[in-house]
Amino acid sequence: MKILANDGISTSGIKALEEAGFEVITTKVAQEQVANYINTNNVSVVLVRSATKVRKDIIDACPDLKIIGRGGVGMDNIDVDYAREKGIHVINTPASSSDSVAELVFAHLFTGVRFLYDANRNMPLEGDTNFEGLKKAYANGIELRGKTLGIIGFGRIGRSVARIALGLGMRVIASDKFVGNAEIRVDFYNGQFINVDIPTEPMEDILKHADFITLHVPAQENGYVIGAAEFEAMKDGVGIINASRGGIIDEVALIDALDSGKVAFAGLDVFEEEPKPAIQVLMHPKISLTPHIGAATLEAQDRIGTELAEQIASLLKTDNS
């Protein structure tokens, strides 16, 4: 049985699938050729990440497709309900990349509070001619310890963010439509741990009280989670991070808030117009930028590959029994 991993898969994932008796194809097929490739090569399983889209047209064109797998959390690039109506299994790996995304959130937070987004642009240009001037410009950084982090969306990734924040000595407040409260276990290297109970609050309270805000919600069908009104409700000088999905922050309103000083800095791993983000966002001096790499660590990709392999083997074994 053949598996097309069109957006790539880790070596450990390939090994696990091959050991289970599958042939893994890692050829990158152009979006418009995916359906034809699946049919021509008798592919039974297609695995994607965020690049390849598996919509109704591909599902209809590939009647022998048995499983669609998403390496990661969000499945907005797959017509999930329609596929399941057609009897196709749709799977993802929600737990595999949580820690990787959470660590990237803090990479952006540290970058923001110490002006690294700007220093890394200006040091190569002026470091040898204006060292003292740059030193003065970046001398007013702040610490994360003791500050309040607001987490909007308190699922697996939001909770991983909370664990790191608690370990840093931050106060954590959270909002989630579906979670009333969560017990966060913070583990230490020596086997010790603490449990911290965090009740969720209305989003309005998060906006009002947080020094920094990070979003971990799915793609939105209607409107933004954070727009001009939400920025206005925030504390002056807030920092905001989005490593979840593009389109949940109004980028025009974000630019306005950055220009006015309402928002001190932003960290963006995802964008409204991927894969061609707006030039105003890319060039803004107060935005720390990464190209949608939240789950792109070696450890996460290993976990994603092996988890997909286990799910696929289990599903097909069940179907064939």
What do you see in this structure?
The protein has about 325 residues and is α/β, with parallel strands linked by helices. About 40% of the residues lie in helices and about 20% in strands. The protein contains 13 helices and 13 strands. It has helices at about 10-20, 35-40, 55-60, 80-85, 100-115, 115-125, 130-135, 155-165, 205-210, 230-235, 250-260, 280, 300-320; strands at about 1-5, 25, 45-50, 65-70, 90, 150, 170-175, 180-185, 195-200, 210-215, 240, 265-270, 285-290. The strands form three sheets. The protein has a six-stranded parallel sheet, sandwiched between helices. Strands 2-1-3-4-5 form a five-stranded parallel sheet, sandwiched between helices. Strands 8-9 form a two-stranded antiparallel ribbon. Helix 1 runs parallel beside helix 13 (about 300-320) and helix 5 (about 100-115) crosses helix 8. The radius of gyration is 22 Å and the shape is globular. The mean pLDDT is about 95. Keywords: NAD, Oxidoreductase. This is D-2-hydroxyacid dehydrogenase.
